[in-house]
Write a structure and sequence with these properties.
heterodimer; A: about 350 residues; alpha/beta; TIM Barrel; 8-stranded parallel beta barrel; two-stranded antiparallel sheet; 11 helices; 12 strands; about 15% strand; globular; B: about 190 residues; Rossmann fold; 6-stranded parallel β-sheet; two-stranded antiparallel ribbon; Luciferase-like_sf (chain A); monooxygenase (chain A); Luciferase-like_dom (chain A); monooxygenase activity (chain A)
Chain lengths: ~350, ~190
């Protein structure tokens, strides 16, 4: 776990991620400017650091209703604005980028942040960027696999010799600068299906598993598939971290949390995915075994500890800001995490 | 209430004729219902390549978006080679897995032979159920002999279309009000 800068003795890590969505607040119908949204994301990261949160990440999406297309630039600003929180992408769409340029960017962020940068590479759940950036959607799988392999190779080898289908060959190429410790954590983003998790395990790379709702037991299959894939190909699952990521919203009572958060999720998903979130499913989110961490602080603590028991994962990453959640509510959530949730989670999961 | 009347084939006239009757009945009996006809023959629609429907363009985007925005669908389909036409199946393939959640769907089937009667039951209904539709169980099955040029000459077919329209609207109203009452109980 040391290669991935994770100290398990300190217990389950707690992170925050934003997709960088730029959606109207459904309660007011108004949308802040992209400029304000970007500044709020940077401020969000600073507050997360002050609250003692371990990790903060920003996603890449190239379409309407998003503001962090240049997510590496945003992360660079966050690197400058913070001192100790780990920072990463959630995720970097490696399929439609040049792995050399991605590595240069993130190695630079790692140096600016003095060794805090991580890459989470994904395949994109929204595919508009293939047209925008000049790629063929038919190569969806292969583009990812080839470029992700190259990214890993660049991380492991300072001098790279490589050839493939989607990029000019590299001959004795030195990809610079190097990260502070020579390499940096690179994760594979998995959408929750066991098939994709198996590939991550097989490659022996850490898995960042995103999930919406449903019983934790369903996602346990994905985690199991990941570890099984790793074992099958000679990797030790005990050395490979797993992160889970999904909706999070805390309020005084569970009812209040559901009620405040639901319009943002429902309306936000309508605009970005074309379908709202069924209220019936959202109501089930309050169940202690449901993976959606929405509720009172105490209920969320119990849920996260339950998930920890089921998955034995190393990092949980909360998505709070989706769908135009106003900044004062985001601040309130960060405060609840820092004062109530983190201390409890560390108390129960840290070895001391 | 928004209802889309989807005519699922790009050839022939029987399904479209039946859909025209259906829309006329709907408009006469329920003038407050907003009905949109989508005859696939009028659109250039691409094959599904797996992307989210929001990311298609042109006719494909218009047709999928209009269907997604509807409260109910009346699907009209002929039977080709003992199945639904590929054009109609493509519409299903373009949509998300749970596209018909909270939507009511009824069916009108036209066919050259009575031997095709169970095809909607055995091939179309399973697709609609998989996509989470509330199905009006009884469909209208119309044969070649019921048409003369572009008219329906079997009065019983008109009665059945009448009942189908009524069932579609009643089930949509009922289902919507039950769901709304249930959702109100959640208290958020």
């Amino acid at each position: 776990m040391e290669n991935y800068r994770i100290d398990q003795d300190k217990g389950l890590e707690f992170g925050i991620y934003t997709l960088g969505d730029h959606l109207p607040n459904p309660l007011t119908g108004e949308r802040i400017s992209a400029e304000q949204r970007l500044h709020e994301i940077i401020e969000y990261a600073k507050l997360a650091e002050q609250a003692g949160i371990d990790f903060f990440s920003v996603g890449e999406s190239h379409q309407e209703y998003f503001a962090t297309q240049a997510h590496a630039v945003v992360l660079s600003a966050i690197a400058q604005a913070t001192e100790k929180i780990k920072i990463g992408s959630s995720s970097t769409i490696i399929s439609t980028s040049d792995p050399v340029r991605v590595y240069e960017n993130f190695a630079t962020i790692d140096l600016i942040s003095k060794g805090r940068a991580e890459i989470i590479a994904g395949r994109a759940s929204r595919v508009g960027l293939f047209d925008l950036l000049g790629y063929n959607l038919r190569d969806y799988e292969e583009l990812f696999e080839e470029k992700f392999d190259l990214l890993l190779k660049i991380n492991e080898e300072e001098v790279v010799n490589w050839s493939g289908e989607f990029r000019a060959p590299l001959k004795d190429a030195r990809v610079l600068p190097r990260p502070q410790s020579g390499s940096m954590p690179i994760w594979r983003a998995v959408g929750g299906s066991p098939a994709s998790a198996l590939k991550a395990g097989y490659a022996g790379v850490p898995m960042f598993m995103a999930h919406l709702g449903g019983p934790a037991a369903i996602f346990k299959r994905t985690v199991d598939a990941y570890r099984e894939g790793a074992r099958r190909n000679g990797h030790d699952p005990l050395k490979l971290p797993v992160a889970t990521a999904g909706f999070f919203y805390a309020a005084e009572t569970t009812q209040q949390a559901l009620s405040e958060y639901y319009p943002h999720i429902n309306e936000g998903m309508k605009l970005t995915n074309g379908q709202g979130f069924p209220k019936q499913h959202f109501a089930q989110g309050a169940d202690p075994h449901n993976i959606m961490n929405v509720g009172s602080p105490q209920q969320i603590i119990e849920k996260i500890l339950y998930q920890y028991e089921v998955f034995g994962h190393q990092r949980y990453i909360a998505q709070i800001d989706f769908g135009g959640v106003p900044f004062d509510k985001i601040m309130k959530n960060v405060e609840i995490i820092g004062t109530e949730i983190l201390p409890a989670i560390r108390k129960y999961t840290a070895k001391s | 209430m928004k209802i889309v009347a989807l005519s699922g084939s790009i050839v022939g006239s029987k399904t479209r004729t039946a859909m025209d009757y259906t829309i006329k009945t709907l408009q006469e009996k329920y003038p407050e219902v907003h009905v949109t006809l989508i005859d696939l023959a009028d659109y250039e629609i691409q094959f599904s390549d797996g992307r989210n429907y929001l990311e298609y363009e042109g006719d494909t985007k218009y047709v999928t978006q209009t269907i997604m925005d509807a409260d109910a669908l009346i699907i009209g389909t002929p039977i080709f080679q003992a199945s639904i036409p590929a054009t109609l199946k493509n519409i299903f393939d373009l949509l998300p897995v749970n596209a018909f959640l909270n939507k009511v769907i009824s069916m009108i089937v036209t066919a050259g032979s009575s031997k095709h009667y169970l095809i909607a039951e055995q091939q179309l209904k399973p697709i609609l159920s998989y996509m989470k539709a509330q199905i009006v169980q009884t469909y209208v099955f119309i044969e070649e002999a019921d048409f003369y040029r572009k008219d329906i000459i079997n009065e019983d077919v008109l009665f059945r279309i009448n009942r189908l329209v009524e069932d579609t609207v009643v089930l949509t109203e009922t289902y919507t009000s039950i769901r709304e009452a249930k959702e109100a109980e959640y208290g958020f």
